[in-house]
Amino acid sequence: MRVSEYFGLGKTQPYLDFVDVRLDTDIEVFIDPTALRALNSTWGQECASMIQHYFESVLDRIKAGKDYEAQSLVSSLSERNEFHLGFSSGRSQGHAFGSKSAESVWGALSKSQASKSGLLKDLEDTCLLIEGIGRDMISDAVCNIIRGPLIKYTQDMCRYYGVPLTPNVASGPIWNPIKEVWESDFVELPMTTGFGKVILVPKVIVRHRLSYEYNEYYTHYLLPEMQNAEIAANTGLVELLRNGSKRVTKKALKEKYGSNKLAVVEQTLKYPHVLDDYKKDKDRNIPPPLDHEQLSEIEKNDPPQWEQLVEQLQNLPTGDKTANDYENLVEQILSALFYPALCNPTKQHNIHEGRKRIDITYSNVAKAGFFSWLSQHYPCSYIFVECKNYGKEIGNPELDQLSGRFSPSRGKVGILVCRSIADSNRLEQRCCDTAKDDRGFILTLSDNELVELLKAAKAGIRSLDFSLLNQKFRKLID
User: What is the pTM of this model?
Assistant: First the structure.
């Protein structure tokens, strides 16, 4: 049973912002620290900073010889089951640097030259340089380190989707970066019978595998550098080929120097620039979030039902009685269409101390396509959406209502969704006037245009470029 089923949300993974995990086991996805660093949001930056600060705290104590303090920090990454991410084939077990593995992990960290020399800088470096640490342990460690922000995210998502929160639930260890200590508290969390508490994870930050891979680093980065060094020194490993060229095989290098992580550390200390090059390449080529089809395959769940959304939209009556239904349906459509560019939706978001409300607010975390381009040129950390479920023509009052939500800090781009547009040229001109008056940029989408986007997605031509929105925005700035 998944979270969505247990709490009767009536929504499946494509329409949910979090990973819809099974409660009885794990889903084979992982939090990649590089994905958090690349997440273009305040929440992502907070998480990335917290991970970096924690790991630096551990390394500082190792270098200072404060063994007990360092081991205590590592041991507190206890194995917890409330995230449900990882390899467990049965009931979730967790694979963090916890009680069972703390001693061995601590021993490897404290004895490794990678820790003492300064070679080890980021948490994910450990899967390259520290024996016994793999991607599942890295991901579980990340979950524990950012437990505080994940609890806040869980509370926000529960309020958004209507999941009941139970008060006075033990939080588990929460990292305090100011005091550099683990703390605990009693918080509100969703509780389940038989499976305990659940902490939700945004689907935009999970990957099927970590970006950093030991075999990839050793085989494709470090060994070629070692080959060049052997040839330059004309060692006994050099073979002379018939054409007069020289070579050193990777097999010969592994036989001479070894292929375990101790050997990798020894060679990386000789050629530290190789690790720097590897990390720079990874930062330049961060894997994108898992798309709907990939999540569907991993979770054994249905992908978005685009045609069903079209039918629901076309069959929904206009009017005040169905205004809330229309807003909910629009949110499902946009969340599925615009993922992973837009995430973390908030409905009826209050601003100006509650004097104004925004129907739906999305965080713009796009790394490619139209929304990414938009964020590079205009204030749009958030994208605001207003829904109008009536048949009359959209006029200046509706545009003024949306533009009144804009600000340089929140963003100045919004989408006005309505059932129909009688005079598209006139509405387009009104939107242009709003832009020219420096009151922000409003893109309009009618039901017919939503259907156009949904049918394109069903046909498999869904693109993050969103040419329809792009064309509309170009008209506002031309």
Answer: 0.90
Give the Cα-Cα-Cα angle 103, 109, 113 (nearest 5 degrees). Answer: 145
Please give the residue that has the higher pLDDT: either 359 or 149: 149
Does CATH number 3.40.91.30 belong to domain 306-477?
A: yes
Reported as a single tens digit per residue, the pLDDT across 166-182 is: 999 999 999 999 999 99
Q: Where are the domains of the chain?
A: 3-207, 214-284, 306-477
Full 3-state SS string of the chain: CEHHHHCCCCCCHHHCCECCCECCCCECCEECHHHHHHCCCHHHHHHHHHHHHHHHHHHHHHHCCCHHHHHHHHHCCCCCCCCCECCCCCCCCCCCCCCCCHHHHHHHHHHCHHHHHCCCCCHHHHHHHCCCCCHHHHHHHHHHHCHHHHHHHHHHHHHHHCCCCEEEEECCCEEECCCCEEECCEEEECEECCCEECCCCEHHHEECCCCCCHHHHHHHHHHHHHHHHHHHHCCCCCEECCCCCEECCHHHHHHHHCCCHHHHHHHHHHCHHHHHHHHHHHHHCCCCCCCHHHHHHHHCCCCCCHHHHHHHHHHCCCCHHHHHHHHHHHHHHHHHHHCCCEEEEEEEEEECCCCEEEEEEEEECCCCHHHHHHHHHCCCCEEEEEEECCCCCCCHHHHHHHHCCCECCCECEEEEEECCCCCHHHHHHHHHHHHHCCCCEEEEEEHHHHHHHHHHHHCCCCCCCCHHHHHHHHHHHC
Cβ neighbour number for residue 7 with a 10 Å cutoff: 17
Residue type, 67: D
> pLDDT tens digits for 403-462?
988 988 889 999 999 999 888 899 999 999 999 999 999 999 999 999 999 999 988 877
